[in-house]
Hints:
Helix content is 35%, strand content 27%. It contains 8 helices and 13 strands. It has helices at 20-33, 39-51, 91-103, 115-129, 167-180, 189-198, 242-256, 271-279, and strands at 14-17, 62-68, 71-78, 84-86, 110-114, 132-133, 138-145, 158-161, 202-206, 212-218, 225-232, 261-267, 282-294. Helix 1 packs antiparallel against helix 2 (39-51), helix 3 packs across helix 4 (115-129) and helix 5 crosses helix 6. The chain is elongated, with a radius of gyration of 20 Å.
Amino acid sequence: MRPDTPPRTAVDSWSVTEDLAAFLSRAGDFLRSRPDLHTVVLTVVEGLRTGGARTYGEQAPWFGVLEEDGQVRAACFRTPPHRLTTTPLTPAQADSLAAHLVARGRPVSGVNAVRETADAFAEAWCRRTGATLGPHPHGTRLYRLGTLTPPEPLPPGRSRIAGEADRELLARWFGEFQEAIGEPGGRDAAAWTDTRLAYGGLTLWETPDGAPVAMAGISPLLAGMIRVAPVYTPAPLRRRGYAGAVTAAVSRTALDRGAAQTLLFTDLANPTTNALYQRLGYRPVADFAAYDFTEPA
């Protein structure tokens, strides 16, 4: 370093790009080093790589990398208008990310990360921008499958991989699922269904007469990880054991496809699903939090 060259600051340790290939070239190994904690970044980035830059919205996504001492220490992305998602950060790293984004004019509508990181970034962002937190933070828990333990007894019926003939039903159910989690229209239901059907990523539980009553999806195998999502049973058919049965079935499919880690998220506000997944053999990994920001008038 030349004597008159100022030292590199923490803010400068972050870099942001809209070039997905460049981001993966720099951060890919880091992301694959912890496929459980990095599952959201891995799966969304893979969706963008295979489906195109407009997979999650009409605005161009962007990606961030933190490098310290020549090593990638963290990564983040945003697919506007959705929240910023980041890998775990220390409070100092969260503050430096907020400072970098403010300095470069990169607005964010909220943040999704492990709880400690989300808290630290939200505090830093609000302090630096004057934004306030939205009224309803959302908490989820990440689980990883240990020993799969199917429910006993199973409800009458069987599981099967969904096919093209199920397309209309699956798209409708996915739309209902988005409504149920408070994200109506977040993804195009037909396009989502087509993508999942292309790799056998949706499983149905059907009654003995062949009527579908629940569905569960899985992501493609990536970095040894498959994530179960979504799990959906129409409201009139709930509390009959279908969700547990279809989740066990799709979890078995994930293992059969070579998953070293089978993961899923649950809503912390729903004790029923948290208890169900633990009975199936899933064990907690980390709690995540999502905050929305309201910018000052």
